């Protein structure tokens, strides 16, 4: 199994809060998506055609999040992201959101993605374009 790690820091926006001034639970999924997007740009070197789904899509087929601590407006949150890729044609991302003000884990989440080609057909193997990108980063064998 290939595991790559990435850190993404976010300062919650006012629009992320609920009426109590606490980060709304849906905000965590937005933050996870932002971290995943930046990981794909910075680490996997995905260009615009890969990021917008013109060459390859990897939709979410499963997601979850466990909330442990509240985050308030003005806190700073670090997302520790793990990219996991095994032999099957799916990607798993694991997330750990850490409130840097109190240095405690505020949420733990996961998303699982499958691959679709440019014609929206399910890929049964890891797409060549991804395995080539991974070979540029680490020695990767399917």
TrEMBL record:
The keyword Mitochondrion does not apply. SUPFAM superfamilies: Thioesterase/thiol ester dehydrase-isomerase. Belongs to the 4-hydroxybenzoyl-CoA thioesterase family. This is Acyl-CoA thioesterase. Keywords: Hydrolase. CDD domains: 4HBT. The lineage of its organism: Bacteria, Bacillati, Bacillota, Clostridia, Eubacteriales.
